[in-house]
Amino acid sequence: MTILITGATGQVGGATARALLAQGAPVRALVRNLAFAQRLEGAEIVQGSFEDGASLDRALTGVDALLLVCADHPDAVPHYVGVLERAWAAGVRHIVKLSAIGASAYSPVHLMADHHALDERLRAGPSGWTLLQPHLYLQNLLRAAAAIRKTGRLSAPMAHDSLPLVDARDVGAAAAAVLMDPAAHRGKTYRLTGPKAISYDQVAAALSELLGRPVEYEAVDPHDWEARLRVRDVPGWRAFDLAHILYAYEPPDNAVSADFEQLTGRPPTALATFLQDYRADFTGA
Ligand SMILES: NC(=O)c1ccc[n+]([C@@H]2O[C@H](COP(=O)([O-])OP(=O)(O)OC[C@H]3O[C@@H](n4cnc5c(N)ncnc54)[C@H](OP(=O)(O)O)[C@@H]3O)[C@@H](O)[C@H]2O)c1
Question: Which ligand 1 atom minimizes the distance to the CA of 137?
């Protein structure tokens, strides 16, 4: 059995590959930049990308199960469809796709509409499939770490909503659990959340405790946030999605899910544990 992981140098793909390798599973990783492949010791590395069909065919040869992960991209739909069609042609029996809670044809957030279109495509395809839908990652807080160190302020367009933020390492652990026994998870969609819905006000309070000095939360208007990102040269499509992400979630989307614990047998990572694990990022020590 060979398991192919795409996005293997990223947060979720990397965590999945490491969890599978630790269990002795045969992992093949599609990697764009070989310099990053050293983080995947024990995996078979195939250099390539979603845009390079020949590299995909090489990577997909003899593969039984595939984890489909990629960075968000304005051409995500044609990119993913290209991989799906090649995987089906290669006879891959099971495809696990990283999607998102909030994926919807009607979402104003482009990446959520893209995920929905791709999830539907996978469901209608000839292979077995499993969809993993995480809520927002706790790791998104790391983007604010430098500003928190410098200004003592956590700025974000998250209003005061309570969101069950999930650790990306847990998403990888859930993906590994599915890939170790794909038949048991055929045709299932799992919603992956943290153990509790928390507001960014609560995140700021936890950061204050961690750092031993006040961290204040600034709830930024989404349009202002989008403008701030554009000034920092974030591409327009990305700035829009990041700034308006809260509009992707209806109230039921912010409920805590038991799926992670069912898949892995342990509770999801709590905010306090995440902050301790990434303490150096927030303290700069
Ligand atoms: N952030 C959130 O809160 C959140 C929540 C729910 C769902 N999601 C979903 O999670 C996914 C991203 O997962 P992640 O955070 O693990 O990603 P990530 O850390 O940003 O890593 C992205 C991976 O995709 C690879 N990649 C990018 N473009 C590629 C291409 N053209 N061909 C092949 N590989 C390519 C990257 O390779 P390089 O190392 O070479 O760049 C990297 O390995 C997205 O689909 C997003 O919608 C995110």
Answer: 3
For the segment 91-114, the average pLDDT, to the nearest whole number, is 98
pLDDT (0 to 100) of residue 149: 96
Ligand 1 lined by 69 (C-beta under 6 Å): yes
Q: Is the CB of 49 under 6 A from ligand 1?
A: yes
Query: Which atom of ligand 1 is nearest the CA belonging to 9?
Result: 43
Taking the C-alpha atoms of residue 211 and residue 280, their distance in angstroms, rounded to an integer, is 10
* Contact 7 CB / ligand 1 (< 6 Å): yes
Predicted pLDDT at 248: 98
Look up tokens 């040269």; give the residue: 233
Closest by alpha carbon to 166, among 201, 146, 190, 185? Answer: 190
Domains and CATH numbers, the chain: 3-134+167-193+254-267 (3.40.50.720)
- In the predicted structure, residue 1 carries a pLDDT above the cut 90: no
64-80 pLDDT, tens digit each: 999 999 999 999 999 99
Q: In this structure, what is the dihedral angle of CA atoms 220, 170, 11, 202, given to the nearest 10 degrees? A: 20
pLDDT band at 222 (very low <50, low <70, confident <90, very high): very high
Closest residue (by CA) to atom 23 of ligand 1? 7
Q: At what angle do helices 110-124 and 236-243 cross, to 10 degrees?
A: 90
Q: How far is 257 from 255, CA to CA, in rounded Å?
A: 6
47 lines ligand 1 (CB under 6 A): no
Question: Residues in the chain, how many?
Answer: 285
Distance CA 219, CA 184 (A): 42
Q: Quick check: CB of 158 below 6 Å from ligand 1?
A: no
Which of 98, 234, 237 is the pocket-test mutation for ligand 1 (most atoms within 8 Å of CB)? 98
- Please count the other Cβ atoms lying within 10 Å of the Cβ belonging to residue 54: 9
Is residue 88 within 6 Å of ligand 1 at its C-beta?
Answer: no
